[in-house]
Amino acid sequence: MKxxxxxxxxxxxxxxxxxVTTACTNDEQPINEDVHSTxxxxxxxxxxxxxxxxxxxxxxxxxxxxxxxxxxxxxxxxTTRVDLYLVxxxxxxxxxxxxxxxxxxxxxxxxNGMQIIQPKEPMLSTAGDKxxxxxxxxxxxxxxxxxxxxxxxxxxTEFPLSTIGxxxxxxxxxxxxxxxSGMSEVxxxxxxxxxxxxxxxxxxxxxxxxRLPSRVxxxxxxxxxxxxxxxxxFSDVTYSIAQGGKSIYLLPNxxxxxxxxxxxxxxxxxxxxxxxxxxxxxxxxQDTTTLVPVNPATTSDPQAYLNVEGKLLLENTHAxxxxxxxxxxxxxxxxxxxxxxxxxxxTLAADxxxxxxxxxxxxxxxxxxxxxxxxxxxxxxVSTYVGGKTLYHVWLNPDNIENPTVSPVIRNNIYHININxxxxxxxxxNPLTPDVNNPDxxxxxxxxxxxxDPEDPLSSVDTYISVDIEVNNWTVHSYGVDL
Length: 483
Description:
This protein has helices at 35-38, 161-164, 195-199, 272-279, 367-371, and strands at residues 14-19, 41-43, 47-49, 69-72, 81-88, 94-101, 105-109, 115-119, 123-125, 128-136, 152-154, 165-170, 173-178, 180-184, 187-189, 204-211, 214-220, 232-242, 244-245, 247-249, 253-255, 258-260, 280-281, 311-313, 328-337, 354-357, 363-364, 382-385, 389-395, 413-422, 465-472, 475-482. The chain is mainly β. The chain has 2 domains: 14-212, no CATH class; 215-482, Immunoglobulin-like (Sandwich), CATH 2.60.40. Strands 1, 5, 6, 10, 14, 15 and 16 form a 7-stranded antiparallel sheet that branches. Strands 4, 17, 24, 30, 31 and 32 form a 6-stranded mixed sheet that branches. Strands 3-8-7 form a 3-stranded antiparallel sheet, with no helix packed on it. A hairpin with a 5-residue loop joins strand 26 and strand 27 (363-364).
């Protein structure tokens, strides 16, 4: 975890209540060697979870409902460890820290059926004004300094995105193991408080925590092809996600009315191909096989799509949104034109490759036919759709689906995209990725300019897709797209 110095900032999520009953010593990394000899009060914590939660599941209530809001979703999360940091009231000094592994925690229920996580053994501490910071499921060792809002949790070879959040099997079901974080207000820890008094409510610190990643779910309408082009059919619809942050601040970083994420000030320019990979993740673009499932939503269960796992990414906001700095979903589909739609009357290659004239917009069976004046337009640029693959870029949380200007992706939100229809052919290669290992590269030949330019604002070209979008908190954002 990278260290930065700044102020503390926190946006609310689910309520995590910490009862100060502990002697926050740490065998791995002692912070205050005199804590046992100077401890004069009891401290402990209890993490309150929603009813029916399992092994530390958390219901979140972070309000990010500006666009495409579709309610809240509790979900099921698994807790394997809790890291507690007690810091000075000014946030500058780490006083005590402690990691609680699963074996050191106990799960109980209160009289209201709310689940509570607390340590099995009591701890001791010192009195005074303190701030408590908590991380859950952190892949990092305990920090040796006071955490701040702008410490970075970064995706690296050693700590891939899966260490920050992934779906795992637990007792016959799929659950989300995800890193969370939160911070309390300055709280006065009273002196001379016994363990029994702590259990009765004394020396209590309340925190809120956020899941660090966001979640993307993509589905398609059952009648997708019926609603789509009359000149051909779409099949093998898959999706990948890209341009989520390479890093995320440990806690939400709020400056006035601005919610600033990592690389907030990045601007895509001439150096995009060289610089974008230092700010954003593109690894998931290599996944060309994740099929878009049919939306399972029904009249009786309109949010049934939440049972689809989807994919995780890190938040991304900007003052000025561009195609080259905004998180997106890449939809891939195979388009097979009807025989009568092929202008030259020829037969496609076995893999389904076809060609589209840049001047006349017609479909051809070969490059030669597209450029032959007898069948096409002499010398016109031609787009090669290798294997019949066509691509669509969908922004994750647009303020306006048809004419977007901003598209903020915030931690702890679910972004659901439902593909309603394909309005027209998409592009035939993806320019929104670093110039290495592009699974959708520009084909050889007299290619026209790609309408997806990293330096363009979001609304500079048709979307080619009809979508519905919803966002859940785990705020849900859901929207449909006609591609």
